[in-house]
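Ticket #4471: structure export looks truncated?
Reporter: QA, pipeline team
Priority: medium

Steps to reproduce: submit the single chain below to the structure queue and open the exported record.
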Amino acid sequence: MTVVAMGMPAIRAGQPSVDGRPDTPYLVDRFGRTARDLRVSITEKCSLRCTYCMPEEGLPAIPADELLSTAELVRLVVLAVRELGVHEVRFTGGEPLMRRDLEQIIAGCRAELPDTPLSMTSNGVGLEHRARKLVAAGLDRINISLDTVDREGFARLTRRDRLDSVLAGIRAARAAGLSPVKVNAVLMRQTLSGAADLLAWCIAEGAELRFIEEMPLDADHEWARANMITAAELLEVLGERFTLTPVGRDDPSAPAEQWRVDSGPATVGIIASVTRSFCGDCDRTRLTADGRLRSCLFSDQEYDVRAALRAHAGDAEIAELWRGAMWNKSAGHGIDAAGFVPPERTMGAIGG
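Actual output as written to the record:
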């Protein structure tokens, strides 16, 4: 197998090794995991510049002819479900609302896959104007990123004064019938004091809040283990205002551990990606906006499925490429390893 230098992660050309792989159509790996959750990034563009995700000037633009088209995205999603055993699809970015054809992408997938859950991760900016159209296209659920309800804190963290638009987007999503509406908040030192206020706001609005430990996926490479807020520290802060009762996970592969808030029914989730790694139960496979298959957020091993598509490869050939990519998935993210090196791509370029 040859490795092609692209000024980014090494792109693997040709079929990956499948030595020892069992005869199964599903996306299995060497460690007994099966990928059933597909994350599809559809753009590198974003309307915010969150410090833990993007540089201030934004990510380098992907040339239009290098982005997967509407038809290509629909074809790959349908193939993943029908041929590879994917059960759920989530569209991410960048910010998926930055693509004008988002509704067409979702509608195309829904027409072919009437029973497959289709969801999206968004920052919510501008969602109030498109929520009903997205539901009409076939979107089932949405996760919206919101780290604080303090306007000044929001502006510092995202480098944009757009809090009002995000809050309006969350309310519009609920009004349009998207359920549940989940809010994702990255744990940051500068917003920790407002974590309880954010939880109270989400409970009042009927949104499900999940806090996420910050991961080393920032464009400025300023992440340091010693500076990150841990799940344990967050629980201590929230415990000063709420009574939290652990309820665990509904699904072993689900990343969020749940706590009941003040005897319920509201809950809060914590995704402790760093301190309580769930790599052993990971069931995700990833497709980047420029058509690369990734088996893990933290692996720089990518396989070029766009080239196969445009070389008129059949579904069987593409499926085999995808199976091989996942068979070579690593055991875990390796953040605690002495020689850990963050991936070349940032979160905004990979997709959440």
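Status: closed, not a bug. The export was complete when the record was re-opened. Leaving a note from the reviewer for reference: The two ends are 29 Å apart (CA to CA).
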